[in-house]
Amino acid sequence: MKVLVATEKPFAAVAVDGIRKVIEEAGYELCLLEKYAAKADLLAAVADADALIVRSDKVDAEVFDAAKQLKIVVRAGAGYDNVDLAAATAHGVCVENTPGQNSNAVAELVFGMAVMAMRNMFDGTSGSELKEKSLGIHAFGQVGRNVARIAKGFGMEVSALDPFCPDEVMESAGVAPIHSVEDLYRNNRVVSLHIPATPETRGSVGFDLITLLPKGGLLINTARKEVIDEAGLSRALEARPDLKYVADIKPDNAAELEERFAGRVFFTPKKMGAQTSEANINAGIAAARQVVAFLKDGVDRFRVNK
Ligand code: 3PG
């Protein structure tokens, strides 16, 4: 059996070593396709693969058509909006993710970006502290919960919105549940986005919500650029010169925003949230173990397609 690890943005070498160990100990062959520039490279490499491990790499119908032997795709990470689930199901391929494995890394980046933005991007002027500021967590999943834990250390007042999470779960973490998205934005100086990119959430955070933020408001997006209505964001930053937006991955209108709102926006050039050796090891090895469990015993606990 051949397991292909295809990562346009490679894992740390130590994580690749760990993945290799798990795959080879199971008696399988590991093939590595890193930093590939062209989709054709992925299509060629996947042709005889039985299993595929990816990160944010796009796995669409064309990839499934090319992968005649493929039985399982594991997205080593949380969000699986890069995988065409319908095409996978049509080809009889199981799709899994590795929830929680990289969430601390993303949560730590939230605070790296929060401190930077609150200190005016380190431009030498006096900024603000996070202590005693209100933080609203938009979706209380694995990343949101780590954000809440770290926010407590900063002395922030933390609340969260998540219709899929019972109030008691938030309350037991010392987080105040919020039940309307408008209240989340209206009541919090800092809002941190952790919603997945789905048909329902795409473009769902725009002018109306962003301009509800109180004076000096900061929106942090380490989720997906697609959840932002970029034209609405641009209008909000224009209408409210006190607001800031920082994001882990450039929006499509990054050049316009950087020019018009210099000092109030920051974007990582490549998605960096999960780019730590710890997260790479956790997610990569979990993915390798899930591949082996599926191929050997049909275990599909983390399956996300039907
Ligand atoms: C995720 O969904 O797990 C994160 O966005 C990390 O994505 P990455 O593996 O491409 O860094």
Short structural description:
This protein has helices at 13-25, 39-46, 61-66, 85-90, 103-118, 142-154, 167-172, 181-186, 207-210, 230-239, 254-260, 277-297, and strands at residues 2-7, 29-34, 51-54, 72-75, 94-97, 134-138, 157-161, 176-178, 190-193, 218-221, 244-247, 265-267. The strands form two sheets. Strands 8-7-6-9-10-11-12 form a seven-stranded parallel sheet, with helices on both faces. A five-stranded parallel sheet has the order 2-1-3-4-5, with helices on both faces.
Order of helices and strands: EHEHEHEHEHEHEHEHEHEHEHEH
User: Which molecules other than protein and nucleic acid are bound?
Assistant: 3-phosphoglyceric acid
What integer value in Å does the Rg equal?
20 Å
Going across the major beta sheet, what is the strand order?
8-7-6-9-10-11-12
Low-confidence stretches: none
Number of helices: 12
Tell me roughly what share of residues is in helical segments.
Answer: 25-40%
**Main sheet summary:** 7 strands, parallel
Q: What's the average pLDDT?
A: 98
Strand content: 15-25%
Q: Structural class per helix/strand content?
A: alpha/beta
Choose one word for the global shape. elongated
First and last CA, distance? 24 Å
The quaternary structure here is single chain
Supply the key terms:
single chain; alpha/beta; 38% helix; binds 3-phosphoglyceric acid
